[in-house]
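Write out this protein's structure.
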Amino acid sequence: MSEVTVVVGAGLIGHAIARRVSAGKQVLLADLRQTNADAAGVSPSQAKVEVILAVDLYGTALVLEEFGNVVASGGAGIVIASQSGHRLSALSAEENKALAATPTDELLALPMLQPDQISDTLHAYQLAKRGNSLRVMAEAVRWARRGARLNTISPGIIITPLAKDELTGPRGEGYRRMLDQSPVGRAGTPDEVGTVRALLMGSDGAFITGSDFLMDGGVTASFFFGDLAPE
């Protein structure tokens, strides 16, 4: 059987990753759009709360469940989450477990995900991305039974059409401040995300599974301990 790379959400990050890890393999690109899509998910400025939860949280959980049923031994998966999930306030142990392990078809019915519990689209996005990393931890245990690994990458602002929408949207000033006052002082590139994914999917990452890799140029560090800290 030939090796296959499946990219769900064939935007700039997805293409960069496919280029890095898919030499000599069959590549399957899947997306909502026939032509190259803008992003693997939706951002706070692109959609309503219910759409963000349906695409970024439920959609990811469904993909992990289905691929976890068929992934071959030696396989590896990566979910692209976000730095935003790292800036969400701490959840309770019960909430963490619910996001990680609730059956996929019951996920959106969780009390914590109902409209009266979510303040705005950014809150929904943060919950979805925190849920992604928690879901990957739980699914990594199941994938291991098939001899496969699973991890999450949580990028910061990466130069993609999705990031452009955020930088020019209603929260654009805050995003530009993140870049200006972050330790690295710039946005990342899709190829830099591809480099991390190549590590996690290759033989050099064979001891890594169920982990979340934050790569945001130090934005989250500055949010908690630097100039970006809330007053």
